[in-house]
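How a chain folds remains the central question behind the approach discussed here. In the encoding step, the backbone of a single protein was reduced to a row of integers, each denoting a local shape. We regard such an encoding as a compact summary of how the chain folds. The sequence in question and its structure tokens are set out directly beneath this paragraph:

___
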Amino acid sequence: MIVPITISGGGLIGNYISRRLRRSGIESIIIEKNKPPQNKLDSIRTITLNPKSIELLEKEGINIASSSIQKIIASDGNSSGKIVFSSSDIGYSELSSVVMFDDLNKALQEGNLNNTLFETQINSIKYIHEDKLTSIELSSGSKIISEVLVACDGKNSNVAKLYNFENKAHSYNQTAATFLVQADSDITHAHQIFSEIGIFALMPAPKENIFTVVWSINNLHIENLDIKDFVIDNLKYFEDKLGHKMILSSKILNFELSNHYFKNYIKDSVVLMADSAHSIHPLAGQGVNLGFEDADIFCEKIEDAYSLGLKLNEPTFLKQYSIEREALNYLMLKSMDLFLDFFNLKNLYLRLIRGMGLNMVNKSKFLKTFFIKRASGK
């Protein structure tokens, strides 16, 4: 089988790339190890989309239920320090939108059911130098010849391992607990609280009076304790901070937190994308948005090559994608790590300075505008 673009991974980013390139006249095939999507009645996981990601999805005709965030209050649980980010500071209608992950995943997959090979994996990858093509052998025994192979298959990318990309990873020694809660009264803004018992983020979900929580917890706190018991025992701390009673309204999902990055996103005609290329701490909710930014620039370069009648794996265009995204993604990763270190200070006097620093930043329209615009993806 000969296909211009092969995409490993039928998640959000892989399906977005396939839909967009098809609109430009470029065909692709998606290799997905899981079964075809099924309706889920107990959807829990949410994701936060910035204005740029929303704009990209709207161009592909994606329009699903969402909740809008106009203001985010980031506060220090150990002091009075806080920063308030508001969309009105920069004239935007909103800072971000929260959607249910399963809703968005299903909407994107529906446009690609006919060009997705489900329950299939890539077994080997070989670059044919004389033809500048990539030969891909599948678990089914069949073979695909493509100009470009795009890895969108997650943090433990099978493609990156098979093609010997060099990965650098770091564990945060934290576990994220995510779940839905119902509030006793209306909570009008999103909140993020940095405390001794973790980083607690609360955002409105696209369901009436339901909010999504992402709580990053130091593993030392749950070393000999079930994380669900820890959540139930300590939720009152954040209820008191926010002044709202929160009733658990879903299962509690959890996953280990770590970051990783590849110094190079391209080798021959194999391209790493989104979580396959990099991952960061979820405290700013930027992981998926960085993935959509990767996909946007990659598609733009592929479309440029196609419009000029060049091969889709023209090195000049692929290198442009690599140069543009590697530096920005690495900067975001290091910025998040610096932010984490800042809030992990143990010294009492340094904490006092931290609280004062937050309030100083809160008074600076320039700094707040800079942070908001960078996070917006615009």
